[in-house]
Amino acid sequence: MAAKLDARGVGLGVASYVIWGLFPAFWPLLDPAAPVGVLAHRIAWTLLLMAVVVALLGNWSELRTLTRRGLLMIAAAAVLIALNWGAFIYAVSLRHVVEVALAYYITPLISVVLAVTVLHEQLRRAQWVALAVATTAIVVLTVENGRLPWIGLILAGSFGTYGLLRKQISLSASASFTAEALVLGPLAIAYLVWLEAAGNGTLGDYGAGHVLLLLAAGPVTAVPLLLFGAAARRIPLSTIGLLLYLTPTLQFLWGVLVLHEPMPPARWIGFGLVWLALAIFTADLLQHTRHRAPDGSVTPVEPG
Fold first, then answer.
1. Whole domain around residue 188: which residue ranges?
2. Which of 47, 85, 217, 245 could disulfide-link 181, Cβ–Cβ 3.0 to 4.6 Å?
């Protein structure tokens, strides 16, 4: 008999993915701060909040266990997540939310490509079929747009590579995330100080509400990560993988129904092929994981 699914764990996972899915609604609220300034605020306030969280959890000692290789991997992961966050904020500011959704739909497939090229894993036939269908979708969307969906590819590539690195770092999610913030934080804070000194910042010019929204970038970033970490300890990896699709689906709906981004027939065809690829990929994943013991020990990574 199959083990009963932990309802609280599922609820925590759903909450984290719903929050990530609603990110396109939050970041525009930080206008008129420019995307680079928003990114700097996000990094700075996340660092301060995670430092408190790690202190409360007593995880600071974990950071002292990092080897030189571990430190280099943390630094590389920090650069990748900064690139991902920056591209996300920039895309949302341009109202390219549908392209953001595309990125997070194809991220699991990007992870498969990385597993083959970096870890030299062997793909099953269904995975090859899913990749072929997804590649066709990218071609269709490129022809429809008249250009590569480069923002989506940057988001998916940076996120997939970041996840690959995070799986090789022997720290808890909170400690690893804090270590990355420690790498980026001083640069972000220095940039914000320079921005304000040059008169180009927005902290003092747009009222207390704007300041509170900038400060909220920290908890908005950290809370879903912590919810996800709690969920990942309670429910199997296969369930986590299925819940993942909540985020791009909410982003897609926000782009189409709220922002009214154009969806000509060719774009619907491209997304239809992406969804077909994901259906093939997910069915194969579920069939494959039925024959293995459930494993809830995943490394949380945050979309957007």
1. 7-289
2. 47
